[in-house]
Automatic annotation (TrEMBL):
GO terms for biological process: methylation. GO terms for molecular function: O-methyltransferase activity; S-adenosylmethionine-dependent methyltransferase activity. SUPFAM superfamilies: S-adenosyl-L-methionine-dependent methyltransferases (SSF53335). It holds the Pfam family Methyltransf_3. Coiled coil: none annotated. Signal peptide: none annotated. It comes from Streptomyces termitum. It comes from the Bacteria. The lineage of its organism: Bacteria, Bacillati, Actinomycetota, Actinomycetes, Kitasatosporales. Keywords: Methyltransferase, S-adenosyl-L-methionine, Transferase. PANTHER family: O-METHYLTRANSFERASE RV1220C-RELATED, O-METHYLTRANSFERASE-RELATED. This is Methyltransferase. InterPro entries: Cation-dep_OMT, SAM-dependent_MTases_sf, SAM_O-MeTrfase.
């Protein structure tokens, strides 16, 4: 094995500490803590605080007024997106579990958002997305079925305005994406997504090493 140089050893030794510091850098309020607790209670994963802060930043940078979210969960990522969006913006959030969306509604109210700031659509994402307006969204956040990620990308490109952002949560798949061993079909599909985004002439991508991996790309004008 190649001998690590001093600087490389320091980076390796400190990486977990750095990630933990980044995750704790932005404190979370009571509504987010409640939403996280509800997610744990029903057995759902939720975005890390660092990933949430990145989503808030991206929504603010895009001056987002219309955002589509695949995977409502209990509202953790939705709160972060709404915090970054314009005050008159609307989050359209899709989930196959209406009972989870009810928890998210409670979390959004607790965070101080008016009821008209979010539109909840129950259903399978690939059934709902074709009904949304072409070019009508500033940002699309995907945190649903990883096996469907390449299909979400195709729909997202249709939904996004030029200069809009698409983001995919969980592309590290708990380290399995870069593991050379045999992997399940959903991991193969994540790899397909990564290749497609990296090679696309229509997208300007970046892979952010936070949480379980956040893949982001801007749709070129």
């Amino acid at each position: 094995m190649r001998q690590l140089r001093g600087q490389e050893r320091a980076i390796t030794a400190n990486r977990q500490t750095d990630w933990a510091f980044a995750d704790a850098f932005v404190p979370e309020g009571e509504a987010l803590r409640w939403a996280r607790a509800e997610a744990r209670a029903v057995g759902l994963p939720s975005v890390s605080p660092g990933t949430g802060a990145a989503l808030r930043l991206l929504a603010a940078s895009a001056d987002a007024k219309a955002v589509a979210e695949i995977g409502t969960g209990t509202g953790v990522s939705g709160i972060y997106l709404l915090l970054g969006m314009r005050p008159d913006g609307t989050l359209t959030t899709v989930d196959v579990q209406p009972e989870h969306q009810q928890l998210a509604k409670t979390a959004f109210r607790a965070a101080g958002f008016a009821g008209n700031r979010a539109r909840f659509i129950p259903g399978r994402a690939l059934d709902v997305l074709p009904r949304l307006a072409d070019g009508g969204y500033d940002l699309v956040f995907c945190d649903g079925d990883r096996y469907e990620y390449p299909d979400y990308l195709a729909e997202s490109l249709r939904l996004l305005r030029p200069g809009g952002l698409v983001c995919f949560e969980g592309v590290f798949a708990d380290g399995r994406t870069v593991d050379s061993g045999a992997q399940p079909a959903e991991v193969q599909r994540v790899r397909e997504l990564l290749r497609t985004v990296r090679e696309s002439q229509e997208l300007l991508p970046s892979l952010l090493p936070m949480g379980d991996g956040l893949l982001c790309a801007v749709r070129r004008g």
